[in-house]
Amino acid sequence: MNEDTRTEIQQSGANWTSGTAPGERIYKGLPASAGVAIGRAFVYEREEVYVTERILSNEELALEMTLLDEAIVRARDELEKIVSFARVKLDDKAAQIFESQIMMLEDQEMLSALRRRLQDEKKNADFLIHDELEKFRSMFERASDELLRERMADLDEVGQRIMRNLQKKRLHSSVEGEHVIIAEQLTPSDTLLFSRNDVLGYATDTGGITSHAAILSRSLKIPAVTGLHGLSKQIHTGDLVILDGQHGLLIVHPCEKHLEEYRRKIARIERLEAEMADLVDLPCETPDGHKVELSANAEFVNELEYIITQGSKGIGLYRTEHLYIAKGEFPSEQEQYIEYSEIAFSMYPQPVIFRTFDIGGDKLLDRGVPEDNPFLGWRGIRMMLDKPDIFRHQLRAILRASTMKNIKIMFPMISGMAELEEVLSILDEVKNELTEELVPFDEHMEVGLMIEVPSAIFIADELAKRADFFSIGTNDLVQYLVAVDRNNELIADMYQEFHPAVLRAVKSVIDTGHANGIWVGMCGELAGNPLATVMLLGFGLDEFSMVPSVIPEVKKIIRSTSYEEAHAVAEHVLRLPLSTQIRAYLEKFMRERHPQLMSAMLDNGNGENDLHDEDRSIQPEAPPDGKSKSNGETQSNGETQEPRDHE
Asked: pLDDT tens for residues 42-71?
């Protein structure tokens, strides 16, 4: 690589290193969808919609009104076709992404405001739409919440679709032959529509690992890497590339050595997946008889069938926020009751833990108060206590659905006893209301708390006396304990689940729960990281709740490790002062006890700071001419991650 090219790439922001062969370049981004692809690049440049401001005559104004209505109808027709394709290609969950865009398109308040501006200002409709989008963009640009940013992305795509139709333009998301798509950004519709062709993978300059495009890539099992910062300007259509969705790597002009490494890696993953299939119906207990529960994290009804096939013995975290996000407003008690009942019935007799709404302050636009840091703001139980009517509706719905007696409930973001007492008081009031109304419910339903705020750790003894269980949410707990926003690329490597302070806090919570006679589970990412399994088993964790796809791996480790041995591992970990030492010790243990599983874990990126093999310039290895069959979930810093989750 010549010096001019090197300087150009560095100025673009792309994170690259020279490869082991002349001309090879290795770029590091964020792993958005697991799997590997080898093929020729296709650089996709979305045709921009440019607008100019025009003042309309009265005659032109009437025509512009008609053209706007026609453009909206065409946009709706296009989205309805995409919804139908999403249902056929994937499932209802994927279709919901585009259904939410249709709901935006049909928002009468927004459309009426647009038509009023058109009538009053007599300016062309595409300019007014562009202007409205810029207003929303400036309003949301400081938002750190992923879901709010994604709603802005959806709104932007809807607006762009209408503007294209106003300008009689068509967008073509297709490519002939097998290619790795390279783009500055891909919308959800791009991601879905490209999949009609022989697309091997996606690599984008911008976009998050929890974006709708990333979620669709995972659902489509198409490898994807994002956060490559200007890379699309440095690659040409036809360049040979390896895309590694496990580790967030893109290798341009790969050498034969790396091609061979990737082929061996995929072979290992495929062998392990075949072995995992035999574990589904076996109990989760150690060889010396210590039993634990393996549960799944879930968000949608249509996930349940897959959860059951992975051997889950229940749902350790059911997120209820999607009921709000899908509508843009809180659902009624009856709407919630119908969904909660369906879930309880489908999982019976296995337990289901419903978490009450955990919605960040900046997801609600009616308060009108901007929050510089919504993660430390009006969210979770704080919001629900400020909106008692909404909270009561949800509690009533959960209680009404509990008649099969397999439902538990837990509250997020509890930070003190005053909050807990207020929550329990409202719960008691709702129970009394239902009793007076002769509405049946499980009077002995277990009530738990999420431990994810540092203050809760220090008062865990008092909290445990008022709860039936704890569930440790490591995602938020880690970032609060080490003061690191895991979505901030500048400090992403400092987000360490294996930080000694985090692990000692986890052990303390487990011990405190047991001392008070309650069980302790974990529903954050750490619970689904196979590298942490033996350690958490030794800590005494009673329930592991995780992404369904990793349940077989975790079960295999537990079934082949004695509880006595796990306890010794945990004791040793707690004595180590550095996260690097902890990781090295756990990796050594896994290499000795589960070499095949450890190799596949590295292939799938389970672990912080992935590049740690003999050749540190590149860790992954690849299959011959296409995608791997690995079904791994998203990873952030190499650890199994569930999208849109802030436990």
From this structure: 999 877 778 888 998 888 898 999 999 999
Spatial separation of the C-alpha atoms in residues 522 and 505, rounded to whole Å: 13
**Which three-class secondary structure state does DSSP give residue 226?**
strand
pLDDT of residue 375 exceeding 90, the answer is no
One CATH from 3.50.30.10, 3.40.50.2300, 2.60.40.2000, 3.60.15.10 for 9-47+174-272: 3.50.30.10
Q: Is 523 a catalytic residue?
A: yes
Are both 58-166 and 449-636 of the same fold? Answer: no
Say if domain 449-636 classifies as CATH 3.60.15.10: no
**Residue-wise pLDDT tens digits, 597-611:** 776 555 544 433 333
Beta 469-472 vs 639-641: how paired, if at all?
unpaired
Strand partners, 65: none
pLDDT in tens, 74-115: 999 888 888 888 887 776 667 878 888 888 888 888 888 888
Q: How many CB atoms lie within 10 A of CB 489?
A: 14
| Mean pLDDT, residues 359-364 | 52
By the 10 Å C-beta count (0-12 exposed, 13-18 middle, 19+ buried), 461 is classed as exposed
Query: Is the pLDDT assigned to residue 244 strictly greater than 50?
Result: yes
pLDDT at 20: 57
C-beta of residue 524 within 8 angstroms of C-beta of residue 317: no
Give me the mean pLDDT over the 468-476 stretch: 92
CB 402 within 8 A of CB 343: no
A 10 A CB-CB count for 555 gives 24
Whether residue 393 lies in the annotated active site? no
User: Around Cβ 291, how many Cβ atoms within 10 Å?
Assistant: 11
Amino acid identity, position 427: L
Which residues 6+ apart lie within 8 Å of 22 measured at CB? none
pLDDT of residue 314: 93
What is the Cα–Cα distance from 23 to 29, expressed in whole angstroms? 19
CATH topology for the 320-445 domain: TIM Barrel (3.20.20)
Q: What is the pLDDT of residue 281?
A: 79
CA dihedral 306, 217, 300, 373 (to 10 degrees): 140
- Which of the following is catalytic: 212, 229, 247, 499? 212
CA separation, residue 222 to residues 196, 244, 306, 563 (Å) = 12, 11, 19, 38
Angle between helices 58-89 and 125-140 (to 10 degrees): 60
Q: At what angle do helices 563-575 and 500-515 cross, to 10 degrees?
A: 130
- Taking all residues of the chain, what is their mean pLDDT, rounded to a whole number? 81
Q: Report the length, in residues, of the chain.
A: 647
Distances (CA, A) of 317 to 48, 275, 353, 481, 617: 41, 27, 5, 22, 38
For residue range 297-352, list pLDDT tens digits in order.
Answer: 988 776 787 788 788 889 999 988 878 766 667 889 999 999 999 999 989 999 99
Highest-confidence range of 10-19, 515-524, 610-619, by mean pLDDT? 515-524
Phi/psi of residue 142, each to 5°? -90, 0
Residue 620 amino acid letter: P
Q: Which of 130, 229, 258, 523 is catalytic?
A: 523
Q: Which class in CATH covers the domain with range 58-166?
A: mainly alpha
Left, alpha or beta for 248 (phi > 0: left; psi -120 to 50: alpha)? left
Where do the domains of the chain lie? Answer: 9-47+174-272, 58-166, 320-445, 449-636
